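Reopening this ticket.

The earlier resolution said the output was attached, but the attachment link was broken on my side. Pasting everything inline this time so it's all in one place.
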Amino acid sequence: MGNSRMRRSLAAVLAADVAGYSKLLGDDTEGTLTSLRRLRTEIFGPTVASRRGRVVKSMGDGWIVLFSAAADAATCALQIQDLLAQDLSQKIPNIQLRLGLHLGDVVEEEEDVFGDGVNIAARLEKIAAPGSIVISDAVFGSLDGTLRPSFDDAGEHDLKNISRPVRVWTRGSLPGQKTIDTGASQRPQIVICCIETSDPRDEISELSDALTGDLMTYLGATHWLSVTARETGRRCYVLSGRIRASGDRLRLEIKYTDPDGLELWSTKIDGDLGNAFDWQDETAELLTSQIMTATFDSERRQLDKLSIDDMTAHQCELRGQIAIDRLDPDAFASALEYSSAAIQKDPSLPHPFALALVSYLSATVMGYEQVAQKYAQFVPAWCSAAAPLVENHSLLRLALGVTTYSQHREPAHLRAIVEYALRQSSSDFVTLALSGWSYIWIGDNTAAIDCFKKALVLGGKSPWALSIRGGLAMATLQVGDDEAAVRLAKEGLNLNVGYATLYRVLAAAHAHLGRQGEAIESLETALLLHPDDSIASILARNVFAIEGEENHYISGLRKAGMRE
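Inline output:
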């Protein structure tokens, strides 16, 4: 009878434990229990649910969570630690988690769970420092190119009661390191209240938590918004919602208010419990798009009342970020104008340098020479002034690295910088997008596809969506999947018909597929947008490490008839 209730599986196991729990209770029992309750309801529960994790054991100060995919477990662990390290930690004082993660056999029996997967995950958690993550080699080997750089090789370790040494990998940054004020406190803040429900069914509660976690993940993956689960005393936008259910019918009611408490918008979204996963994904993406649009429009209206001279450095930087809602010359000219003004107002802030360099690089690569030339004279000074600010700011380090690469063409050096950036910011879609383009330039198109696919999930509704889709189409073309490149390029053009890069991708892909008429037509459209384009000019601004016939993009453009 007992064996009939036993279930065996291969799973990614996350073991989590509150560091120093007994001492915390002894020092402040009531405060610790309140913090632990907030940790469970505002961070741990929603984040686990958003990654399809399942809590199979709770020990009061610790949890065992099972995931079907190692990537989901690793992403969940990273997000939990990142959220605890942000401003939200002020509302959950003194709480730090140790996290261990292993991929192995698991046995579930009634209310208990055991097996090698659980044992090793628990031992890894024990050797983790507070605030850090330790994963086994089995987990690391299952991760893609966007997640692997998040962990450092810590060598083999002998674990208690484990017969063989285990090679482990650790999260690169640990608590206690010196941090730099990057201006996060000046960003627009969004409070995402936990999605409520009065329905007693577990699947409805889990859906509410998962949707809350998705929104925190998607909206938190940006440099210009600050996301928290509770008000911190600052002026903030507030998102609140409630799921009502009748049988299998679902209705989500959402309200979004501005910092003055005025309703920006509200909506109702219906769904079906039988299709809950797809409904959750679609709803999270829709809400993310609406929240970003409403927030940007609200901030733009406020900032447009000010002249650039009257803006603070933070306001200039935010206005520049908002400007990149298209990939056209005017957007990059505006981003450069505001970011350069922010640099002049406060040269100690890293974000404006990152925005300025990324905007300059983007304008250069896309062939907007008049925009780029206006600011080219400032780039060396920006690089010199930004160099001391790169500590704990991976996007700025990456932007500097790409700028250096464009001048010296050292692929190995750029790869190391990209991997560092991904180690520090594996859930930031701007970092992922720039990393993807960097991988394209150095010729690692498979890694580029990993970056762009993840960036599309996190930032597919952001102002960077077009750049992400363009990069994914380009990388897919470069690996030789011409049909998929055609499809992806057309999807990107649905967002903006003026993106010449996608017409060039279409021209190259059609040419490789033997569709010469369609290739010529696509190339002609691209040349209408950029009449002076040639093979030489494209190679000059894209800094490809591979320029010959092995460059599928360039060889395709030659087949389509582009002049040398």
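Reporter confirms the inline version is readable. The longest strand covers residues 6-18. The domain at 3-171 is CATH 3.30.70.1230 (Alpha-Beta Plaits).
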